[in-house]
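Re: beginner question about structure tokens

> Can someone show what the tokenized structure looks like for a real chain? I only ever see the sequence side.

Sure, here's an example I had lying around. Input first:
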Amino acid sequence: MFASSLSQAPCVQQQRLRSNGSRKASAVPSSLLAERREERDLISTVKMELDIQCEEMSPSRWAELLSTMKSCKTIRLDDCNLSSSNCKDLSSIINTNPSLTELKLNNNELGDAGIEYLCKGLLMPSCSLQKLWLQNCNLTSASCETLRSVLSAQPSLTELHIGDNKLGTAGVKVLCQGMMNPNCKLQKLQLEYCELTSDIVEALNAALQSKPTLKELSLSNNTLGDTAVKQLCRGLVEASCNLELLHLENCGITSDSCREISAVLSNKSSLIDLSVGDNKIGDSGLALLCQGLMHPNCKIQKLWLWDCDLTSVSCKDLSRLISTKDTLTEISLIDNNLRDSGMEMLCQALKDPKSKLQELWIRECGLTTACCKAVSSALSVNKHLKVLHMGENKLGDAGVELMCEGLLHPNCNIQSLWLGNCDLTAACCATLATIMATKQCLTELDLSYNSLEDEGVRKICEALRNPSCNVQQLILYDIFWSSEVDDELRALEESKPEVKIIS
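And the corresponding structure tokens:
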């Protein structure tokens, strides 16, 4: 018995991690990578896009790609073992290719020297770059002076993603000086994991005051603390920018900051995406946030509250929000101890005609079979819900059987269903197979970390063979099956190439 690796995503495929319950992708066999590389390069050339990921660059391969880059509008070279020497060539491409608008170089050891080379091209008048991604490129504060010059001189640049670099507070203060230049038209700034402290806020607020173009600000995974977040929020309320996205995950926030965050929500109708996950705001903090969320000025669409020490007590406020805030389309409550009683309240809100929620992430929330009847009832009424993540809850076969009654209802339009690690066995697979074969809206199903064994996997495969089944991605991590079943799965992938079975 073994778990096969039928279709594995590229090792650098960017996926959300803990905050939405997805997983890091697995490595790809070299033969499959080469095949995908050829196919991707062919497609990308037609679209004037070069998208290479997780590839060691030999000198001959690099020379081949350089000729292609001269006409590309988009160049993405994540995890390609690039160094500062490659940046010399890229600088020349930036200078000589005025059609290049996006450059993505994440997870390469470019270093400060590499950025200095890049910026020579970025500072040229012929440069038209709009989006620059330099996440996890081994940069320090030394790069910030060069990048400041780019921000000050290059009005075409609207996105700068430099998270996962040790820029430090001193370095980002220098960047803020560049932002304050009238030539800077930056709209998106990503500074996650940059070793920032509370001392950065004064400089950020000054930049925000002078930068009405800024729409997205991500400061997650920096040690800011309540005092700094309060100061930042007061600056945001006063700033002229129409901020649309604010990410403050894992920033040392407690309930003490929530009144100020609430004020931003009630004053900035432009703010549609707020993430404060992995902060210990608790039920009292959530109650304060909901005051701003429920304000008529608030037009929130996406709300991330994963791992915020919430309990079922918060579900009363959350239910009121879901049932009355018709702009809210996505909410993550992952890793909060909501329990069955809390989930039942949320399900009641989902049945309200005013609810327009499309995505509900409720993984690892202490749920059991007991809440599944309420989930089923909500699914049979709600026509808007498209994505439901309920993994890592002890739903069991009986719970999933109950849920499937709602999933089969004509009102249900679920497209993505995640049930990984839910204590499932082969006993529920016949019912799941019926869902797959009859609900043509269902395109993604995750059954990872469940003891389905040969019997269950065969039932799922039989559903995939059904012409009525529209599932395009089946995720089966850490499920053990025999070599015979493995052969069946391979044959199924060959007969239906549009289906990805990821294991």
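Each token stands for a local structural state, so reading them left to right follows the chain. The first helix runs from residue 30 to 46.
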